[in-house]
Amino acid sequence: MADTQDAQHPYDRLTPDLVLDAVEAAGARPTGSVLALNSYENRVYQIGDEEAGFLVAKFYRPGRWSDGQIYEEHAFSQELAGLEIPVVAPIAGADGDTLSRHGGFRVALFPRRGGRAPELGDPDTLYRLGQFIGRLHAVGAARDFRLRPTLAPADFGHASIEYLLANECVPREYVGEYRFLAEDLLADVDARFAASDFRTIRLHGDMHAGNVLWTDSGAHLVDLDDSRMGPAVQDIWLLLNGERADMQRQLGEILDGYEEFFDFDRRELVLIEPLRTLRLLHYAAWLARRWCDPAFPMAFPWFGSVRYWEEQILTLREQRERMREAPLKAG
Q1: 206 in active site
Q2: Phi, psi of 30 (to 5 degrees)
Q3: 141 inside domain
Q4: Residues 92 and 65 in one domain
Q5: Structurally, how many domains does the chain consist of?
Q6: Do 75 and 203 share a domain, yes or no?
Q7: Measured distance CA(316)–CA(281) in Å, rounded
Q8: Active site residue: 12, 49, 95, 206, which one?
Q9: pLDDT in tens, 81-138
Q10: Final residue before a domain boundary, out of 88, 111, 134
Q11: Which domain holds residue 220?
């Protein structure tokens, strides 16, 4: 793995004083209270505010998104919130801008929302989540992103293994098998995507339970940072877990709620395992690409170890078997 940890990372400059100054420059009135929240791709803080009580400040990772792509994320969030779909949207400043700049960082402020993880084993919760996602997709299908990317095997799969191999992230003794398994899987993924006539819509993009805050009145959604164009099933499959029979039951509950608001093309179910494959490959490459950020070696100390790559190869073998199974079905 390329050793780039000696160079100072931009986030090293993000001191509490700079955070508070940036939040004040964005129009808030911070009390001085700063609490770092669990976020790695960006830096996110809970900020005490004299008027709102608490706000959440998001410092976007330098170089990841263009200003235009961030504004598309914000506009989508605000469009959803304006239609009373419970998404935590950014707060506009006095000038109407949702993105401020301070100290070389781009910053957005959000209201703080509480909640708990959804009970994904509860049929009623899954049904209500389906309703929520169906409403989101009905809006997402109304127009396309112009600047944000489309989920595709080229970026999430091929570019991922190319980065891992080019930067010698995989131990030499495992390079051959890792390359063979990854390329074999991607050949199947490419074929499935090419053969699937699916519609791409604006998605949340990373719809796992950690991005859904559940309250007695239902869900609200946070973190549209990975929002992009893609097939609707991308916002569904991450909520499925357990054995095959369990996932089919969960899928049925979700789609029962979903289709009250938006039609789901069941031909997309053939993409679930290809999407899982892409996520596995992309996650390993994401860790490698971010290794120069000091937060990553501290949070993921096991990454890059021989044992990690042994487990990755085992996971890819298992994923190859899953790819050979018939797609999930829903009633």
Answers
A1: yes
A2: -70, 145
A3: yes
A4: yes
A5: 2
A6: no
A7: 9
A8: 206
A9: 999 999 999 999 989 999 999 999 999 999 998 889 999 999 999 999 999 999 999 9
A10: 111
A11: 123-324
